[in-house]
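Input.
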Amino acid sequence: MARCLLTGATGQDSFYLAEYLLSLGHKVCGLVRGYNNPREEELRLAMPELEIVYGDLSDQISLLKAIELTQPNEVYNLAAVSAVPISWDQTEMMTDVNALGPARLLRAIIQVGGERNNPIRFFQASSSEMLACTGETQNELTPICPRTPYSCAKAYAHFLVNNYRERYDLHASCGILCSHESKRRTPNFVTKKIAQAAARIKTGTQQNLSLGNLDSGRDWGAATDFVRAYHLILQQPKPGDYVIGTGETHTLRDILDIAFSYVGLDWTKYVTLDPKLFRPWQDKIVKADWSKLRAIGWAPTVTFEGLIQGMVNTSG
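Output.
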């Protein structure tokens, strides 16, 4: 039985990873930022066996205390400020959490576990947003070329993990994550925004939906599939970096087609284009080459259509 510490415990990925690890019989501790967190009670009700600990990626001492208290074998850093557009307005905050946060966490792991032969395995949630769009697919050899403050911060953390891996012989790995969704997504993510709009327009509680570039394409997967990959990566004999995706590309038009047809509506009657929502850094259509991950036994199980329909089902 492993002892696992998950940062960002109230977020989408940590929620599903905690569920998965508990189902395997592991002891799981979730790091929650601040007392009286409004989502903490939801966690306790959903997973009574989950141990809550308090800490903040912006606070080195709190991270050190959390690791000393939980004595984990595995640490999964899934905490991040993940809304890319706000990174332009809140760059310092984004950098402090997404870049310096992992640095503090790695330092705490080394302090608690010792500099050499550290028994703590570390997983960092990197992002495909930091990869260059040099062709149709992105893999572990794709050059890193961030285009937003968000992806710059993620790239910093990604390089740092690789440095700690070499400098301290740490079993530290990165998952280079493509977009991944679930019913737990909030409406500031476009997939949930569309799913929620379809459900609400059907019931008459919403009249229309404003979107940006409908031809913007991404590789979207299911969060429940992705978290299985995080755990599998840390079970490998040697650490490394792995692109996690589905190998399929879909556009916002595809999401609209699935979501609105699922509720029996024609989305063209309700969707308007807003130039302010067009994102210049999202003008490429790419997909993941996850063959390295396939080689160690992982594969996605949730279809794109099933993912979007499930999000509509839980919206309203």
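The chain has eleven helices and 15 strands.
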